[in-house]
Amino acid sequence: MNSAGQIVFVAFIAPSAGPRDAARKLHEDAGLKFVECYISASVETCEARDVKGMYAKARAGTLPNFTGISAPYDVPKNADLIIDTGAKSMNQCMIAMQRHMINNGIISDGSSASRVVDTLICQPTEAEFEAISKMPALEID
To answer: Does residue 94 lie in a domain region?
Structure first.
């Protein structure tokens, strides 16, 4: 999709640097843009958001090899963008992502005649983001 000119967001959750570096190299070798975003939150923040109780299971030892608890996590050292979701509101995080995309020529800010995908530069309210964050996660079998 990226090679067809589409902006693609991938939740590439890789606890070690190797696969992240390989994804970057794959894109760069193909002449495609790649932006590594470190969407961070402290372990405490993640545990507070954990509606399934997976962190509690990991701490109790019943869920082995859990990233950040019983398995290592390599914090990205060269991320192009770092967004701390524990310290910023959802709206602030979205604006930071948009600003990065505008500053790096990925999208337009809408002030020029170039075509812009409207949904990428809207600014939903905090209430809209709260509603989205409360939606249940999709279960994939």
So the answer is: yes
